[in-house]
Design brief:
It is a single chain. By secondary structure, this protein is α/β, with parallel strands linked by helices. A seven-stranded parallel sheet has the order 1-2-3-4-5-6-7, with helices on both faces. The chain starts with 12 loop residues before the first helix and ends in a 16-residue tail after the last helix. The structure holds iron/sulfur cluster.
Length: about 325
């Protein structure tokens, strides 16, 4: 039995959700029509070099449709495939979903919660889009329904953030995480392994940096080069600067990352799964995410290791 109370070698977020809601929970993506400050000129105009929101948006998810309609279509889609759930979370995923006037944010979140079966919100955004008044609004929603704040960090290293034209610093990310905690909204963070110029040591150091922050959960992705992005051009010019991992190499890196990660940080994802038609470079022979996750957990078993095994901070309070 591990510190998170079960026999899996990672602290799986899905189990925590099941405990909260009493059954399997399905997230439904919503494109609520927001943009982001790295596209509209406030911080930048061309966006992050890896960005192509189409690569992860499901087909029913289009901003021309109302939020209610997107969620209704999402529920119908999932109901026909997975009959085991009737609990849904509205996942405001595309672009920056706290980037707008407060009354607009409030109206859009309320619209999602008015759909039958939607029992909570997942709000994806950037660290520079969570001013205190936004956190106050989210905290207000959190008093009546589960709210999960998801911050895209991508890297813990400023030189990487500059290179991928992220338009914010790591200090801003750290500040956003700490302020979110002040509103009892410990965030999930999103990180990419393999970004240009980062060594494996840099990536492993990120696990230690995150372990010192009040982070509730983590989504980890391997770098995938998406067709048509600025990053695709850069990768063609200087491929040696990028880490496009083979599966075995990635499994090894993720395990070493997890060993350094605080055990109470719940794991939401450990790899990305962009549709193959978007990928400039295909790897891993079309393995599905659940198969990749199984490889990682099987290898952890073989190595007799677990999340947090060599982490010096076992809880955030001890840091
Ligand atoms: S990845 Fe997110 S923050 Fe970056 S340009 Fe795309 S939508 Fe904006």
């Amino acid at each position: 039995m591990f510190p998170w109370g079960d026999h899996r070698r990672i602290n799986a977020h899905s189990l925590r959700l099941k405990e909260t809601f009493g059954m399997r929970v399905q997230k439904l993506s919503v494109d609520a029509g927001f943009t982001c400050p790295n596209r509209d000129g406030k911080r930048g105009a061309g966006g992050c070099t890896f960005c192509n929101n189409d690569a992860f948006n499901p087909s029913y998810c289009q901003p021309e449709k109302s939020i209610r309609q997107q969620l209704a279509e999402g529920i119908a889609f999932h109901r026909s495939r997975y009959r085991r759930t009737s609990v849904y979370l509205a996942y405001f995923q595309a672009y920056s979903n706290t980037y707008g006037p407060l009354d607009v944010l409030q109206q859009r979140y309320n619209e999602a919660l008015s759909v039958e079966g939607v029992k909570g919100l997942v709000i994806g955004t950037r660290p520079d889009c969570v001013e205190n008044k936004v956190l106050e609004l989210l905290a207000e929603f959190a008093r009546r329904t589960p709210v999960f704040l998801e911050l895209g960090l991508e890297s813990c290293h400023d030189r990487t953030l500059l290179r991928i034209k992220r338009g914010h610093s790591f200090a801003e990310a750290e500040d956003a995480i700490r302020r979110a905690q002040g509103y009892a909204l410990e965030p999930a963070v999103h990180l990419v392994l393999g970004l240009p110029g980062e060594s494996k040591e840099d990536m492993l150091a990120s696990a230690e940096i995150l372990s010192g922050l009040p982070v509730r959960s983590l989504k980890l992705h391997q770098l995938q080069i998406i067709k048509g992005t600025a990053m695709e051009n850069e990768w063609k010019l200087v491929p040696q600067d990028f880490n496009i991992f083979e599966l075995e190499d990635y499994v090894d890196l993720v395990i070493r990352f997890l060993e350094r990660l605080r055990p109470d940080i719940a794991i939401e994802r450990l790899a990305a799964e962009a549709p193959p038609r978007y990928l400039a470079e295909r790897r891993w022979g079309g393995l599905r995410y659940d198969q990749v996750l199984k490889r990682i957990e099987d290898e952890m078993e073989k190595r007799e290791t677990w999340q947090g095994r060599v982490c010096l901070r076992q809880t955030v309070a001890s840091g």
